[in-house]
Amino acid sequence: MEDLNKLRDIDALKITLASPDEVLAWSYGEVTKPETINYRTFKPEKDGLFCEKIFGPVKDYECYCGKYKRIRYKG
C-alpha cells in the first residue's frame, strides 16, 4: 500500500535515448559472425548473433555444454 502511494506522488517521467558512449560502456562482447543458430543442434553459433558467451545463456543456470546445471551454479 505504501508503494502505491509513492507512485501517486510522481508528477513526471522523462525517458531519453542512450548515447553511443553509454551503450559502449554496457557492452562486453562483439558479434563477429553473421550466423545465428546451428540447423543441426538448434544451438546458437559461437560469436554469432545469438552467442551465449556474449548475450548470456539460453536456459537459466545452465552452461552451453550442459555440464553445469541447477541454481547452485548461478552466475
UniProtKB/TrEMBL annotation:
Determine the domain of life of the protein's source. Answer: Bacteria
- GO BP: any one term: DNA-templated transcription
Domain RNA polymerase Rpb1: residue ranges: 8-69
Might you report a single GO cellular component term?
Answer: DNA-directed RNA polymerase complex
Q: Which SUPFAM superfamilies match?
A: beta and beta-prime subunits of DNA dependent RNA-polymerase (SSF64484)
EC assignment: 2.7.7.6
Which UniProt keywords are present, listed alphabetically?
A: DNA-directed RNA polymerase, Nucleotidyltransferase, Transcription, Transferase
Question: Does the record bear Transcription in its keywords?
Answer: yes
Looking up InterPro entries in the UniProt record yields: RNA_pol_Rpb1_1, RNA_pol_Rpb1_clamp_domain
Pfam family, any one: RNA_pol_Rpb1_1
Task: Recall the GO molecular function terms of this protein's record.
Answer: DNA binding; DNA-directed RNA polymerase activity
Question: What is the protein's given name?
Answer: DNA-directed RNA polymerase
Q: Which organism is it from?
A: candidate division WWE3 bacterium CG_4_9_14_3_um_filter_34_6
